[in-house]
Input
Amino acid sequence: MSTVAISSAVDLVKSPLVYKGKVRELYDLGEHFLIVVTDRISAFDYVLDPAVPEKGSVLNRLSAFWFEETKPLIGNHVVHSDVDRLGDVVTDKELLRDRIMVTKKAERIDIECVVRGYITGGGWRQYKQTQAVNGIDLPAGLRKNERFPAPLFTPAAKNDVGHDEDISFARMQELVGTELADKLRDKSVMLYEHARSYCEERGIILADCKFEFGLVDGELILIDEIFTPDCSRFWAKENYALDIEIDSMDKEPVRTYLANSDWDQNSKPDSLPQHVVEETTRRYVDIWTRLTT
Output
């Protein structure tokens, strides 16, 4: 495994930086965008130090894998993910190998399309308070981590500042129109069910996930990332149980460490210990290996 972690590609890319997210950086290549996936890691709304080796590479390769896997179901924004085709736009190709994706410029639809196969996380917290998730009434007596009879589509309105806002499907229809809302819901559920079956064959439970979509020349396509540990909740089948907090296959070591530390949650935490960084790298590499080999 590489011990080099990339916190930013700003000094490695000779194109304008358009947007810098918690993990991804977006550069303008003219006709297309260049997405660079860094090794930055965030938790509780803070970007943490140090960056986590291999994380960005795993996220980018997993997205490329899933975009190819789901292409028969829906088109996506990928043009290519070959750093050697970028010429002198990139000053150090080896540092950015497996971390880049050249994409179409899509008009983003400002809805985060969330599909839940199990009642856990934020959905469980809503259910305990209201016996509903995103305004969808559910039966009494559900248990934490229980599988839904059918996947639940629970959209959120995207906010570039602050948290995305959970909304009802009726509100989503008001925001984007009935026809597009129906199409987004149906595509999201279909993608989730496809990936859930794929994961189950490999001993992994896909508990929930989120998608972003865009339009290119009027065609609906997938954008951003799909079925990575940063946008999906994966559980190892051997860890599944009701009524417990299941250790998910992602940056859980970071969240656990911070939750059990004396961090005040009002300022950026101190640097993560090396053993937490190494265990987080191991988690990301493990999910990549289990899904693709």
The two ends are 17 Å apart (CA to CA). The first strand starts at residue 17 and ends at 20. The mean pLDDT is 96.
